[in-house]
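Q&A log
Question type: sequence-to-structure
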Amino acid sequence: QVQLVESGGGLVQAGGSLRLSCEVPGFTGDYYVIGWFRPAPGKEREGVSAISPFDGSTFYENSVKGRFTIAGDIAKNTVYLEMNSLQVEDTAVYYCGYEEDRSWYPFRPMTYWGKGTLVTVSS
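Response status: OK
Response body:
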């Protein structure tokens, strides 16, 4: 069982920034993909961004391109999502997802999930 430790949510005004973190404690393998998802109409969750720190592949949903940046620290087994120019529409619980399947493609649902961290953007 993989446990994910999320942090960084909070309340921010529109135009502001937040950074989310997702740590995978005790990871000893050689590959994973970590993604951030949030609820969306008609879907349980939609992909926002994802990264495979081992090959540097990054993925972004269209509405966050140019505003969000995802990065990974392999030594710390942690992935960060820097969210800039936040909009009211970005308000959501953000879930960190973890996947070891090398055939994963964006934004297929992942195998393991964190509990979520709330991001609230006020106008």
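Response note: The CA atoms of residues 5 and 23 lie 5 Å apart.
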